[in-house]
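Archive entry. Fields below.
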Amino acid sequence: MSMAVENNFINGIQERGYIKIGLPPYNTPPAYYIDPKTKELSGYDVDFARKLASELEVDVKFYRNSKDFNDLVRRVGAKEFDLAMGKLGTTYERLFNAFPVQYMKLRHAILANRQSLEKNDLRSGLPDFGDRLKNSSIRIGRMGGSIWDTEVRRVFPNAKIIKFNDWGEVKEALFEGRVDAIYRDATEIKAIVYQDPNLAIQYVPILFEDELTMTSIFMSESGKFGFSDFLKFFIDREWGEIKNDSAIFEEFQDYYNSLSKFQP
Amino acid sequence: MNYISIVFNWLIATLPKLRRPKNFFLIILPFSLLLGRLASDYSVLLNEISEGLINLIAFPAIPLVLSAVMVSIANIFSVEERSKPDRFKFASRFGVALACVVLFISILALLLSIYQSPGILSPEGRLNIGRFMLDELDIRIGGSIVESEPTYWFDSIIPTNILFDASNNNTLKVISGSIIAGLAMSRLSSEKVKPLINLLRSINSISVQVLNIVLNLAPLVLIFVIASAVTKINSQIIVTLLNFSICVFFTAVISLGISRLIFKRFTTRDERLLFATNPIDKIFLLALSTGSSMSAYSLIFDTLMKLKRDQAEVEASVSLSLLVARLGNVTYNVIAIMFALNLYEVQLNPLIMIEVLFFGIATGFSTAGLTGVTTIRTISLALSSFQVPTQPVIPLLMVIDPILSLPRAATTAVLATAIGLIASVGSTRAGETVDAGEQIHPIGLDPGIIGAD
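PREDICTED_STRUCTURE:
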């Protein structure tokens, strides 16, 4: 019975001749983004999807027209795509919409204005800095329609959380002093200072070793039964283990080092 | 085995010669720079060796400080040996001299910082600093890497138990405890305190000898410290922090000039004729070339004794100035605070400048008992009060500290001499005459000794 379901899902893709991959509607290098030179969709998530398609001997079609991360997960659960990927965090709410297969774990991080931390009496040298920061009432910017909405409220219960439509707006709010810090995963936070090292004087990345987001590839119920074992096997074969942000920094060191020249 | 013995003997014979100032510039400095360049892949090893050697050299410091301060305070304030006006005269001379020199040199450092503007950087300079900070200065929470701030003057000055403080290397507490104990001893009859004084003098003499032995390693320490710094220092950062470094070096040169003036003002022509060369220059060069103000202790002591100053007053004023006042650190901290304020574009006004002076002096004094780069952390208190982030400033300063610790030590040494000259003026050793070539070392050391920065 199980084998028949599995064959149906994979057979369906193979009969169609291409696999439908949903991606978030953003540019998030080095995971998924339009390369400014080639104007082509690039990134390690995109490469992963292409290799997966090649393994299935089919083409790949990417869909980037979801409203936000949450909408993308909802749509894959509704079978609008075969898989949804693009650094999608695994949350309890999303489990109602689709089924995850974990492929990365990323540290939570904030980029904080150093002087705002000092004004809020949050000195990094203090032994209880972590607890003081988490219980502080600083203003934190976050992106709407993403897991960070719930995560930032959980980690910073007393902070003033301000929602913005996209990541660009969140960063702008920090640089204009409308928020004291912005919240996302370590790869996105560190990319900001890599992009403009000048910012490191005024802003500091704070990485939470004890707060991890499990990043998954999502699929529908039929995908879970027909494809998840194959996907886990494929992840294990291609990546060896579940990647963390340190591995991503190391693997894409050249990319991060070249960010200051990168013009998206 | 024979080769090892030959190399060992050669080292024993050669290392003391390397402690001469000219050898620092001709041999140690070029060799260290070369070693740092050639052994750039071994920075961790070089760093470990230099830290180990620094710890070895600092090891007799606590008994030395404890005995020197206790004996000198007990002598100076001895009810039996000195009249009340005498005690008051010295205390007020020392206090006034210290206050005047501290204020004067701090204001000069501040004015120099305003003129030279360290921390006001070009876009290229800011980019260099930003690049340096990229991977070095993330804050990690929940892991094991959270740096703890040092304890400050206020927390660490009150002695708890002098033996406990000594065994825990709390030098500041040892100094304050020794001052209190010395004052208590001065109020007791000499019969009661004589056994303890004798014991302390023995401890002091032994510490001096230990120091003499380990100080032969001073050239090796410098070689490894500089080489280790060269492997880590980014040349772009050095250029970016050039204004800051210039301020620190200029302050040292100004301190030399002030000390020379004080030497001229507080000695007679005949007294100056006792010296073939200006002793202030020798003290300056010795501290500069060893990176340690304590290295000049013996030379300062001998200089003042040659001027027939009172031994107890010389011991007290020089040891307290060198160990506690730390004027090189005071001026350095004033400049470092100005650097941080400029880097974070804090608007300067007269009130802020007064605060800079206050914090520069307070944090400079709080470096008592600290060595090397640990002294830099003391400015955290000042930066926090100005709401300027500590974390990026201190690692930046640490990068160039192996170089700047040299003028800092020289500043402390020459200004301690100046304070000693003023504080002991008018005092004479009753019934003693000292020839030009005579050397006295009661709590003194041979020239070329290193103890603490």
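CURATOR_NOTE: Residues 144-148, 430-453 of chain B have pLDDT under 50 and may be disordered.
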